[in-house]
Specification:
Helix content is 8%, strand content 34%. The protein is mainly beta. It has one domain: 2-Layer Sandwich (TolA/TonB C-terminal domain), CATH 3.30.2420.10.
Length: 139
């Protein structure tokens, strides 16, 4: 398998709106930090590709106060480091049907674990560009 490496950088200082945030970017799960990744994996590659596989089974908790909604959706981005952990400050919520679902995904990502990505014997930092999370209750 051959994978081309695309270096990317996420900037820590974002300009654009009056509060310093670029509204085209997602809502950070915490304090945003500069992160460099060796390559990018799209949502289809998360968990089922030879590059990144989940170690932790499960997912974000369904927020009890949102059960009345029945379902919810969140799209997130993050960087997985060479140990398989998500780099603190790299996770962002790109879209969310309710902020409570986004908070649940952020909490999950803080403890999520992957097998480290390895290409040609080298461990990589990998940006997951758009990871979907779907919440369903009572179905």
């Amino acid at each position: 398998m051959r994978i081309s490496l695309i270096p990317i950088v996420v900037a820590s200082l974002i300009a654009g709106s009056s509060d310093g945030r670029d509204e085209s970017l997602g809502r950070p799960c915490g304090r945003r930090v500069p992160v460099t990744a060796d390559t990018i994996v799209d949502r289809a590659g998360v968990g089922d590709s030879p590059l990144l596989r989940w170690v932790v089974v499960g997912g974000p908790a369904y927020p009890a106060d949102l059960r009345r909604l029945g379902h919810g959706e969140v799209m997130a981005t993050f960087v997985v480091d060479t140990t398989g952990r998500i780099v603190r400050g790299s996770a962002e919520i790109l879209s969310e049907s309710d902020v409570g679902f986004g908070r649940s995904v952020c909490a999950f990502l803080s403890r999520a674990k992957f097998t480290p990505a390895v290409v040609d014997g080298r461990k990589l930092n990998v940006r997951v560009s758009a990871a979907p999370y779907v919440f369903k209750f009572g179905q």
